[in-house]
Amino acid sequence: MRTFSSILAVNLAALLVVSVAAQQPASKPTPKPAGSAPVKPAATASAVSPNATVQEIMATMIDPASKAVFGAVGTTETNGVEQKQEPKNDEEWAVVRKNAMMMIDGAKLITMPGRRIASAEMSNKAAEGELTPAQIEQRLAKDRASWNKLAREFSAAASKALKAAEAKSPDAVMESGDAIDTACENCHTRFWYPDQDKLFKK
Question: Does 119 reside within a domain?
Fold first, then answer.
């Protein structure tokens, strides 16, 4: 049988071990080898997908915005008297700026992968001399690089209108209108009505 003194000695020894262990510094994590790449969270698939067609973006966004910029500066004639048309205050200049920004954003939207040219109901409808939306999609699939390049050129032209509005310069807005018109026509003659020359010769 253990004596009281031996039990006390064992308990004191155990207490000493616990006390020493408590005073030891916490263990540090093992350092990673030099040059090792940080661990990145797993990428999640984008849930964004295009809904509006190119035709809808043109009709509801780009066309109205371009008309607003074109109409902001110009000249009109009433009863033989020529009058200048240009923004007269900050609010009217803000309208020009807003529409220029809509064109810039519209140019980005029409380059989004997976966006259809038109709805299924409109895919085979076109006026004389124009490609159908289905034909435009075929052409785009073969030459998306040109489509994206032309969209960037349109965006650059619209950016001139944006800078002109911010500078409140009627002359610069007029110049941007020419650039926008040229960018539009360059895209249309490549993807919308490439055979218009033949139509005009009839």
Answer: yes
